[in-house]
Design a protein that fits this description.
The structure holds two protein chains of two kinds. Chain A is mostly helical. Chain A is built from 20 helices and eight strands. The chains are: A mainly alpha, B mainly beta. At the A-B interface, helix 1, helix 2, helix 6, helix 8 and helix 20 of A face strand 23, strand 27, strand 28, strand 29 and strand 33 of B.
Chain lengths: ~500, ~1000
């Protein structure tokens, strides 16, 4: 009996010991493979830059620059058809094509979410960069980069949806006044005001393109901020500002810029980040990849494309195909047609031939990637393609339009002719302000075709209904100038977002 | 009561016998006799007759007779049989001894496993179902859980048929919307997510805890149900050796006739003509007509070899088993093989201390192939498998891979090892007190090698570079558990049983992998080192979960008639934020054994009658991992500044809004039941009613502008109710003693209803991959209800289309959809709910016969009241093949009465046209066995049975597709997209015992 009692004592003691070893920390282990706020996040100065890199990374996301954006900014216009096979709708690209989308169309929701995700990252960068122990100069530059990108995202939103929630700081979801910002739509004018203040800050604080080290090529520059501000001003018809900013760029006051001689080169790897470029999304097709997700493959040739030795060149899903109308818009001798449209049966610059069996007669050449002569790691999802956002061709045309609107006809002609001459076309015959305006608008179409500009440009010019209806699209004036607010977001706001007229 | 009397009279009889023979002769004698089953007075074959204190003895033959030569006249014989009370009998010089064995326990006295202990069925206040090994082992299945299908009520098993895959299990309906809704498995105390590593032959029994009261002992893990596996261990007595094996083949049962080449070509040309496209085929010059399902399927071999050795002495016992299982499946090139070794030992160290351990080792090799059934369904029958020049066939203008090429070019292997086991120490310091301390562990490890060679079949099926992908994952789980159980009966009336314990759980896992391109196409060179270093990618991630729990259960029984039982458990979990870590779960219930009351003594209807009722609160902590990490930093992915020559830059941000109150899902439930045995124990029956409601996690939505990347935050914003009725009958009897038979029937009626959904996000799911969704979970409907347009015919003319609200792009011959809300516009508001994949009822039927050396059993299973969305039929991207029935009698201008819509390449809106009944009835298993008389062989064989089995030989279904069994997540189950056809298995096997 004695041994028995001893054993019990021993056992109980042992159990107590075990219990006490089960400390509080047992239920609070550090999360595996997950950085949290409390870690070294704010000590490592490298992280300041990473908060800003995140703002750029959003440009590569599928919901920001790819399928939905292609649908809304390009397939809607008279430049591009849905493409692909008739039965393959790419979710709702048929609706984009005939302008029959509704608030529940996927693309309308994705573009909204993509741009707000970008804004979230910019707000986070602006809130967190000041915490770091880095030089004031670097801090200011990083914040200026974030503000440039925030302006870019808001400019997309305001053009698509008009009045949108104006969130200019990190939202604390548990604070009602903060959440109010996120669940109410601010007037278009207030959105433009924020965009302008961001771009002015960026213009004043960013380095010029020759002021960056080589490793930083691709970051927002003074020139990019100026060009973006010019474009934003153009949408508000602030012609003095447009002229002043574009003049500064053309005169080389904001960095080294100019038109490259060969238009076709611009969309090849060798044409990346040249003096033509004010801002472009950097696509990296080497391992590790950092390309624009699916940008090439959604628009690649649908069907067989082969090199002379019969190996396959890069093909894709065949969406966003140039229209016959666009093909016919080019004047005879315009070199830009061959640089913009690739045709069924054609041999491309890298000697790949589009076979006659492919689904569509025309494809977007500006999105083509050569697996043979450009950086390629075997994957077509994140390709080497840089998406050109702002380039000198457009700067000259903005300059021309501003000059024309301000009555400076000869200056307008000079800038317009600079673009025409590069395309191996003669000087414009237009001399009156009205003719010249039409000429500039037409020039914008062919110069910037398939560059996500046409639909918004037509709306800006106030003739979207007229042009798109003539093209057979179901465009309703007073409604289709804006896209519907996504129903999913209206639901998420608990019905606080109002819908755009007509939807 | 009756039972006790029977025991007493038996005892008296024995004493008389012993006394009467005490004066008998000494020396050796020959003894023979018959063993009778006291339950029904039939003879009892296979009963053991052992000479006490030795390993010598025999078993009775098919007529229950035994024969022993040269035994000492003064020895004692022990007669025993599973489920019967053993009887010891001194020979006392007799030469003929006939023995009647009484059943050892009544149904209510049977012991069931209830988690951290066992209980008599009479004491159980909740709903626990038990299935024993013989029910499970006769089926050629990977896991024992598949064998539960149709065996008992309240348990729905949905299996995909893919070799090596774990079945989906739903206990009393689907509780959860987004969290995992599968139950937990507890194998001898080790909580594991699956039991693919357990050899079915090693399973002694399975107990399923079905209601909140019995589940509560597993607290925050239990809400989806608990499946307790008890494995076999050695029994004191002579060594037993069992060898079991079967070999057979599987073949596709249910086919869908596809259009032949000519029909396909005509259909496609016609469809293209409507879109103004040129014809794709010249129907008169078609060269091939391929049956793609023939091309990718085969009769797959299935084989199993299993052996075990067990036995023990008073001090130790042992159990060892080895098993090899290989399943080829019906898809060419696909196979799964598994090798399992299990060892279990128990030692009685002293009178009050015992010790034991179990180790289970598994090695599984899975040669995986892509699911090409979908491609076989879609590819045109006009293309050959291969052209005469050897190249793979394809259809130009159709974006579908050649399924044979896809199989041939896939080299995807998984090698998995898993070590699982436990060790325990058990102390009995006082009579009635047991203290047990155990350490249980599980360590799975898997390596997946996926090599894709460089190839070109067509522009839609090509690999530009060869690519090697390597994945490696492992985890370690252990649970340290200590508990004490005290049970004592006071004054012969008050029985008290108390269990208290605590446990600490740890699970940590990681996965890593890498890939490189340009690795040579040679198996011995499938190493990352062989690839292009410029193409290196790699990843490495991990997770940790830790839990601590305290639990207790008190059962009080008065006079064997009244039981009350309560469970309390507190769980702490590292998955939740600091203030939300601890939760309390509990249950209480009572049972009343009515048949033991004095007023029941004179009735003849019930042998046993028990009523029970209980209530409990339990949890499910399977919410998405990471929901509880509130301040996580998001790695956004890189950006490439400075051109391709410069290395990429990483990005970080905060873009996740988290619910700071995140915790487990809570289920509250009641359960009432009646358990009875009637007609001299021939009929047993159990009827249960349950009603439970789960407060479930669903993603709620935040406007993107608020700063959450996906706009989704998990919150407890839905209530799901499952209520139902379970009825179970088992009949057991014999005819003339020689023919014994049993028949069972069980049925479960379940109603699943979403009672609340809030949080702004519409729970739409069941995406078809063509831009359409098919389910919408809303209040008042079951989870994952199909939500479609109502089809009301076929448009006959453009005038008809123009005259009514219609979708864009409609042409004559298309499906006409109803404007249900009559607002003059056809849009999503016209869609309606047509039911879900969750059956309203499911049932099992079984019949067993034993006649002399022959045995026969038939098991059936069925379900009714659910719907299937025929997804594969709806998903056509253009120029795909169609089912023969779809092409036949299709609408054309010449055949305006056609019942099928026109040939079309357009993507149809989800409508009732694609909704079909999910009802089916299947014969799960027919097994016929014959036990050979081996006693004259003198080979030491105690049993040799040969059998033949047909698994799933027959299925009756209304559904036109391949299989009505379509597992999937709660909100998207029941959509046939990735097909795996139903197959039947035919096999022969032996059971051999020494």
């Amino acid at each position: 009996m004695r041994t028995c009692k001893l054993t019990i004592l021993f056992f109980c003691g042992y159990l107590m010991l075990m219990l006490s070893s089960c400390k509080e920390s047992w239920l609070d282990p550090a999360p595996e493979n997950q950085l949290i706020k409390q870690d070294s996040t704010f000590i490592d100065v490298q992280n300041a830059e990473e908060f800003v890199n995140a703002c750029y990374n959003q440009l590569l996301q599928w919901n920001e620059t790819t399928f939905s954006w292609i649908g809304m900014s390009s397939i809607t216009s008279d430049d591009a058809d849905k493409g692909s096979d008739p039965g393959d709708l790419g979710t709702d690209k048929d609706q984009m094509d005939n302008i029959s989308y509704s608030s529940t169309s996927l693309s309308v929701g994705e573009v909204w979410v993509g741009n707000y995700n970008g804004i979230t990252r910019c707000n986070q960068a602006m809130a967190n960069v000041p915490i770091y122990n880095i030089s004031d100069g670097l801090k200011t530059r990083l914040i200026a980069e974030a503000r440039f990108l925030r302006a870019y995202y808001y400019f997309n939103l305001v053009r698509c949806y008009g009045d949108v929630p104006l969130v200019d700081k990190v939202i604390d979801a548990n604070t009602p006044s903060d959440l109010d910002k996120a669940v109410s739509r601010a007037p278009k004018a207030a959105v433009y005001a924020l965009i302008e203040s961001d771009l002015e800050f960026a213009l004043n604080n960013l380095p010029t393109n020759d002021g960056y080290e080589a490793k930083d090529v691709g970051r927002a520059t003074k020139g990019a901020a100026a060009a973006m501000l010019a474009k934003v001003s153009m949408y508000q018809k602030k012609w003095d500002a447009v002229m002043d900013l574009t003049d500064q760029i053309i005169n080389g006051e904001l960095g080294i810029y100019g038109l490259v001689a060969d238009y076709a080169i611009i969309w090849r790897e060798e044409g990346e980040n040249t003096e033509e470029s004010l801002f472009e999304i950097q696509g990296r097709g080497l391992t590790p990849t950092a390309g624009v997700q699916g940008y090439f493959v959604t628009q690649g040739v649908r069907g067989s494309i082969r090199y002379p030795d019969n190996t396959a060149a890069l093909g894709g899903w065949g969406f966003n195909t140039p229209t016959e109308d666009l093909e016919n818009a080019y004047e005879p001798g315009d070199v830009r047609k061959a640089a913009t449209i690739m045709f069924r049966g054609q041999m491309l610059w890298d000697s790949a031939t589009i076979q006659s069996s492919v689904s569509n007669p025309r494809y977007n050449y500006k999105s083509y990637v050569s697996r043979r002569y450009e950086s390629f790691n075997g994957g077509d999802w994140e390709s080497n393609k840089n998406v050109r956002i702002l380039r000198m061709g457009e700067v000259y045309l903005m300059n021309a339009e501003a000059a024309n609107e301000l009555g400076n006809i000869s200056k307008a002609q000079t800038s317009l002719n600079a673009v025409r001459n590069r395309a191996e076309l003669g000087d414009t015959p237009a001399t009156s302000q009205t003719d010249l305006r039409d000429a500039i608008w037409k020039e914008r179409r062919v110069e910037l075709a398939m560059e996500h500009d046409r639909f918004f440009d037509l709306v800006r010019q106030g003739r979207a209904g007229e042009v798109l209806r003539a093209h057979g699209k179901d465009f309703t004036d007073g409604k289709n100038e804006l896209f519907p607010i996504p129903q999913s977001e209206i639901d998420a706001s608990d019905g606080k977002y109002t819908q755009n007229p007509g939807y | 009561m009756k039972n006790k009397l029977r025991c007493k009279s038996l005892l008296a009889f024995l004493i008389l016998l012993i006394a009467g023979t005490a004066l008998g002769q000494q020396g050796t004698v020959t003894v023979s006799g018959t063993v009778i089953n006291g339950e029904d007075n039939s003879t009892l074959p296979m009963a053991t007759v052992q000479i006490k204190g030795t390993n010598q003895g025999t078993v009775t033959d098919m007529d229950g007779k035994f024969y022993l030569e040269n035994v000492s006249a003064d020895v004692i014989l022990i007669f025993s049989f599973v489920g019967m009370q053993p009887v010891e009998e001194a020979i006392g010089g007799r030469s003929i001894i006939d023995i009647t064995l009484a059943p050892d326990v009544t149904t209510l006295e049977k012991v069931v496993v209830i988690g951290y202990g066992t209980a008599r069925k009479s004491q159980v206040v909740g709903s626990v179902s038990r299935v024993t090994s013989e029910e499970l082992t006769k089926q050629p299945l990977l896991t024992a859980v598949q064998g539960l299908q149709g065996k008992t009520s309240g348990i729905q098993i949905i299996s995909s048929g893919d070799p090596g895959s774990q079945s989906q299990v739903r206990i009393r309906g689907t509780n959860s919307v987004t969290a995992d809704a599968n139950p937990i498995y507890v194998v001898d105390g080790v909580i594991v997510p699956d039991i693919t590593n357990i050899n079915t032959n090693d399973v002694e029994s399975i107990d399923v805890l079905k209601d909140a009261a019995s589940q509560a002992i597993y607290g925050s893990r239990a809400a989806n149900g608990v499946i307790l596996l008890t494995t076999k261990s050695g029994k004191t007595g002579k060594m037993r050796v069992n060898v079991d094996s079967y070999v057979g083949f599987r073949s596709m049962t249910s086919r869908v006739a596809m259009a032949d080449a000519r029909t396909y070509a005509q259909f496609t040309n016609e469809a293209r003509a409507y879109d103004g496209q040129v014809p794709m085929f010249n129907v008169d010059t078609l060269q091939y007509n391929t049956d793609w399902f023939d091309a990718i399927t085969r009769k797959g071999m299935v084989q199993n070899y299993s052996m075990n050795v067990s036995g023990g002495t008073e001090k130790t016992n042992y159990y060892f088993s080895a098993d090899y299982f290989k399943d080829e499946g019906i898809l060419k090139g696909n196979d799964y093989s598994r090798f399992v070794i299990r060892n279990s030992n128990d030692y009685k160290l002293t009178k009050f201390l015992s010790f034991g351990h179990t180790v289970n080792f598994t090695y599984a090799l899975n040669n995986m192939k892509p699911n090409v059934f979908t491609d076989a369904y879609r590819i045109g029958s006009t293309a050959p498998v291969r052209y005469p020049n050897g190249n793979y066939g394809y259809v130009t203008g159709l974006s579908v891979s050649n399924p044979v090429a896809a199989i041939d070019y896939t080299n995807n292997f998984s090698k998995a090892m898993r070590l699982q086991g436990n060790a325990y120490l058990e102390l009995t310091p006082l009579n009635g007190l047991t203290v047990r301390s155990s350490l249980n562990f599980n360590r799975p490890e898997e390596v997946v090698t996926n090599y894709v060679p460089m190839y070109f079949v067509s522009s839609v099926q090509q690999s530009l570079n060869s690519n090697l992908n390597l994945g490696n994952s492992s985890s370690l789980f252990y649970i340290f558990d200590n508990n004490a159980t005290y049970s004592k009966t006071f004054a012969e009336l008050h029985e008290v049983k108390l269990t208290v314990g605590y446990s600490a759980e740890h699970e940590k896992g990681n996965s890593s992998g890498g890939s490189r391109r340009d690795v040579p196409d040679q198996e011995n060179l499938w190493y990352l080192d062989q690839g292009d270093p410029n193409s290196v990618t790699n990843y490495h991630n991990g997770y940790i979960k830790q839990r601590a729990s305290v639990y207790g259960r008190l059962t009080y029984t008065f006079n064997d008639r009244y039981n009350v039982s309560g469970v309390l458990r507190r769980d702490g979990s590292s998955l939740f934020p600091p203030d939300q870590k601890w939760g309390t779960f509990y249950s209480a219930g009572a049972s009343w054994i009515v048949s033991r009351e004095s007023f029941m003594e004179n009735q003849r209807i019930f042998d046993e009658l028990k009523l029970r009722g209980s209530y409990g609160i339990i949890g499910n902590d399977n919410i998405p991992y990471g929901s509880g990490i509130l301040t996580s930093v998001t790695q956004t992915g890189p950006y490439g500044f400075g051109g391709n020559a410069i290395s990429i830059s990483q990005g970080i941000t905060f873009d996740q809004i988290k619910d700071a109150t995140v915790t487990w899902e809570t289920t509250k439930g009641i359960d009432f039941g009646v358990e009875m045995t009637l007609i001299n124990s021939r009929l047993t029956s159990e009827i249960s009613y349950y009603n439970k409601v789960t407060n479930a996690y669903i993603p709620t939505s935040f406007p993107s502008a608020a700063g959450d990347a996906d706009g989704r935050v998990y919150a407890k914003a839905a209530d799901i109710r499952n209520k139902g009725l379970e009825v179970l009958f088992n009949w057991r009897d014999n005819i003339g003693g020689a023919l014994r038979y049993n028949a069972g029937f069980n049925i479960t009626f379940n109603t699943n209803n979403v009672e609340k959904v809030s949080g702004g996000l519409q729970l739409k799911d069941g995406g078809l991959g063509n831009g359409h969704i098919t389910t919408f979970t809303v209040e008042g409907e079951p989870i994952g209800s199909f939500w479609v347009y109502q089809q009301i015919g076929i448009y006959q003319s453009q005038d008809e289309i123009d005259a009514s609200p219609h979708l864009t792009g409609m042409k004559p011959g298309d499906l006409k959809l109803a404007d249900l809300n009559a607002d003059g516009v056809l849009d999503e508001r016209d869609r309606f709910h047509v039911g879900s994949y969750q059956p309203k009822t499911y049932y099992g039927i079984s019949v067993g016969l034993e006649w002399k050396q022959l045995d026969l059993s038939i098991d059936c299973y069925g379900n009714a009241g659910n719907k299937i969305f025929n997804g594969k039929k709806a998903v056509r991207f253009g120029n795909d093949n169609i089912e023969a029935a779809r092409a036949e009698n299709r609408w054309t201008p010449e055949n305006p009465g056609g019942l099928q819509p026109r040939a079309s390449n357009a993507i149809p809106a989800p409508s009732t046209y694609f909704i079909e009944s999910g009802d089916f009835f299947r014969v799960n298993n027919i097994t016929m066995g014959y036990t050979l008389s081996t006693d004259k062989w003198k080979a030491g064989i105690s049993q040799l049975r040969v059998f033949a089995t047909a698994q799933n030989p027959l299925i009756l279904k209304k559904y036109s597709g391949f299989t009505p069994e379509l597992p999937g997540p709660s909100t998207s189950a029941g959509i046939e997209l990735g097909i795996y056809p139903v197959f039947s298995t035919y096999l022969v096997g032996i059971n051999l015992s020494f």
